[in-house]
Write a structure and sequence with these properties.
Layout lengths: L1 E5 L4 H13 L1 E10 L15 H8 L3 E6 L6 H16 L3 E3 L6 H13 L3 E3 L7 H10 L3 E7 L15 H14 L10 E7 L5 E13 L2 E13 L7 H4 L12 E5 L7 H16 L4 E5 H9 L8 E4 L8 H6 L6 H8 L4 E4 L1 H9 L3 E17 L6 H11 L4 E13 L4 E7 L11 E6 L4 E4 L8 H13 L1
Parallel strand pairs: 1-2, 1-4, 2-3, 4-5, 10-11, 10-12, 12-13, 13-18
Antiparallel strand pairs: 6-7, 6-9, 8-9, 14-15, 14-16, 16-17, 17-18
Helix pairs in contact: 3-4
Length: about 475
């Protein structure tokens, strides 16, 4: 796939670009230079050097300037992406978003409006593993700004390396500083990366800092040759679908094999939650599971999680209509194995058990208020709501889909959309449960801000 990368010059966009180049063709970088240093959307320190960075890696640059006014700056971003589509024939856009729903949701919506795929391969990544990878894979990342106590001028211009991470580890928990700077605590500049043909050498720079708010401004820099390095085989497979060893939780990858970047965005975060919960897991693509199940290669599975997938990826939906596909779900249900379907996974469950997948009038992208349904059917359902949502009456969820579900008769609602508190009874289902089995579906992405839903499902499965 021909891709454009939203490129700020910082570590996240550079690392995302590197991942994209391992599996697809990156044909341009897209940079937005904001005149507003407090931009909600865009990285600003040393963004004027994006042209030099583009020259360093030999990738064409689409560059736009914006006044950086909240929301209106999105029109400039859309114009830049539209130009990249027109001049470079891109089919998708890659961003380095890690946890910012504000940024990710807006990029997703713009891409949907332009009929482009949107990939966020660092989405809810394990921050420690990610920073270790940056160092191990030879990225030369410099600190270009500090904006949180106790970070100070001594860090400005410093390289992100083992020494930097050791110092950050000592203060991160105490001062609530994220290891990736995702909370705006620090900004970075990429001087070299595995995909750079030449590295950037800094000739002259200034550093200024006051009250733990400082900038490292590069005034002059040039390109210089660097030794040709071989790519790390482990890094080459960073976004590949890896099955691992047979273990308790079966994680089903519903992403099309044609879009490997989706694995990092929709499956890897779920793996991280399962791993953090102390559970073993085996990840397989949905097209592989029926055969493995029938051959007895999955003897110890005690729970199944069906992951979500990209907004434009409908391959799984086409396969639901095939009665020969997803036999493992029916078999698991017969064996009373707990199942959790996330977004696309919920759509699969609904269709298999007799419901329907229907197109919504509006795209659902971003945070939505959810209202827990206090069912009058049975006490068991109420208990299920309390268990999986931890006694919450309402909460916010991250939606990313264009399809809704109608519930099969054997399912009942656990939560519905509560649009700004005005339409609590609009019956747009966000979560449901099988009436007799521990089978759950959520039309949102719990890996984003609602990890407890997955953890609670795993607890239910363990005690089942």
């Amino acid at each position: 796939m021909r891709l454009g990368v939203l490129f700020s010059g910082g570590k996240d966009s550079a690392y995302a670009c590197n991942l994209a180049m391992m599996r697809d063709e990156v044909v341009c970088l897209i940079t937005i230079a904001s005149r507003n240093k407090e931009s909600y959307m865009f990285h600003t320190p040393n963004v004027n050097l994006a042209r030099l960075q583009a020259d360093a890696c030999g990738i064409p640059l689409v560059e736009y300037e914006t006044a950086g006014e909240k929301e209106s700056e999105l029109a400039d971003l859309k114009a830049a992406i539209a130009e990249a589509k027109r001049t470079h024939n891109i089919a998708g856009v890659v961003s380095g978003a890690i946890m910012s729903v504000y940024q990710a949701a807006r990029v997703q919506r713009i891409c949907a409006e332009l009929d482009l795929f949107c990939f966020n391969p660092l989405w809810y990544t394990d921050q420690r593993e990610y920073m270790n990878s940056i160092i191990a894979e030879g990225f030369e990342i410099l600190i270009s700004g500090v904006f949180a106590y106790p970070l100070d001028e001594k860090l400005l211009g410093a390289r992100v390396d083992e020494r930097f991470m050791a110092a950050l580890d000592k203060i991160a928990d105490k001062y609530r500083i994220t290891l990736t700077g995702e909370g705006g605590e620090f900004e970075t500049f990429t001087a070299d990366a595995p995909f750079f043909k030449r590295r950037i050498a800094i000739d002259r720079a200034t550093a200024s800092c006051r009250n733990n708010n400082g900038l490292y401004t590069i005034l002059e820099a040039h390109l210089e040759d660097k030794p040709v390095a071989k790519r790390d085989a482990a890094a080459e497979n960073a976004v590949a679908d890896s099955a691992g060893d047979t273990s308790a939780v079966l994680i089903c990858n519903l992403c099309s094999r044609r879009y490997p970047l989706s694995f990092a965005e929709y499956v890897k975060p779920v793996e991280n939650i399962v791993k953090a919960a102390g559970c073993g897991f085996k990840t397989l693509h949905y097209s592989e599971i029926d055969a493995a199940w029938e051959k007895g290669e999955l003897p110890d599975i005690s729970a199944i999680i069906l992951c979500g997938t990209a907004l434009k990826d409908n391959e799984f939906a086409e396969d639901i209509a095939d009665a020969e596909k997803f036999r493992f779900i029916r078999d698991a249900a017969d064996k009373n194995i707990p199942i959790l379907g996330i977004c696309a996974g919920f759509q699969v469950l609904s269709k298999i058990f007799g419901g329907a997948v229907i197109s919504e009038r509006d795209l659902r992208i971003g945070m939505t208020k959810a209202k827990v349904v206090k069912t009058t059917e049975t006490s068991e359902t109420t208990d299920s709501s309390a268990t999986i949502f931890e006694d919450r009456d309402n909460f916010e969820v991250y939606e990313l889909h264009k399809n809704a579900v109608t519930l099969p008769d054997c399912f009942e609602a656990l939560a519905v959309a509560d649009d700004d508190g005005k339409n609590g009874g609009n019956a747009r289902i966000l979560a449901a449960k099988h009436r007799d089995k521990e089978i759950y579906g959520v039309l949102f992405h719990p890996e984003v801000r609602n990890e407890y839903v997955v953890r609670n499902f795993l607890r239910i499965a363990k005690n089942h």
